[in-house]
Design a protein that fits this description.
single chain, 381 residues, alpha/beta, 2 domains, 5-stranded mixed sheet, 14 helices, 5 strands, disordered C terminus
Amino acid sequence: MSPTPSTQSQPGPPASRQSFSSELFDAVKQRTFFLVIGVLLIQFAFVLSYVGAFHHPTPHRVPIAIVAPAQVSGRLVGELNGIHGQPLRATAVADESAGRTLLGHGSTSAVLIVNPVGKTDALLVAGGGGAASATAVEDVITRAEAAEHRSATVTDAVPAQPGDARGLSGFYLVVGLLIGGYLVAALLSIATRARPATVRRALIRLIVLVPYAILSGLGGAIIVGPILGALTAHLLAIAALGALLVYCAAAVTIAFQVLLGTLGVGLTLILFVVLGNPSAGGAYPAPLLPGFWRTIGPALPNGAGVEALRRIVYFGSYGITGSLIIIAAYIVVGVTVALSGTSILNRRAATDQPDTDGAEAPLAKDAGASAIAPLTRVLSH
């Protein structure tokens, strides 16, 4: 039986008859437009941050210890600190042994040992703390010595390991681990949903990231150590630090997603990539960066991670506590925001929308789920 005219669907106007502007607005939704604008702004911020940080590295108050006779020590410290632009922060120490101790602990970038009977002094640097910083100190001291018709022989007292060219391996390890942390958190949101449905789901998502972080840290330590020979020894310490960094990035990403949904991934990129990487002290340590990046670097996970790793490998883990506290603080704040934020959003949703027969479905399903249910099923809500 043929359908009656009243039951036949009426075709719309052919696409060719639509104006270009109407078809454009139909194809590009408002939300898509603003997302593209957001990506454009992040792109510009990326260029601005990296070029701004690296285009003109200038030393600023790089710490240096001075070993000199008492009659010239005060004058020399004053002259070095009075150099235009304040490239050095000089302090006098009692003797060479004290200076070497500070250098070995990473508490100073160089030690200048003044020869009281000759015109050739000794400059000790720590290449493992950053080749760029050691080179900058050498350049400043060379010019200062030349002005006094003196010279200095340079010795790298804390050299970078043979496989760690210019001391950059630790920086790239930290960057790789942080990328893995925020990518896996972003992937969970793509595979399931940006915001966990319940507090229990958020907690599960945070828990399942623990073994991922441990495996990532151990894998990264094995790659840079036994496989590549870039950072030898300290395998377990590097693995533990790597696990903390991965979980830090993942927890912060989940927190941003709870607060902003899919847009939280963009905020993660701003924090870890746009701001964190150029200020981390990789290519140029903090004293060589402009003021903005020099200030924020130590307070971000990237900078804290690079500093902690260098202290593990080259300075006997001396002074590592501050960096670990910063990383732990991001983890605590990330977990707290993820759980409390999910709870608040759920309460608001329950207040704004009346209960239905299926309102408690996520919790009911979770309560009756088998203990051996696949994680993908658990995370799909």
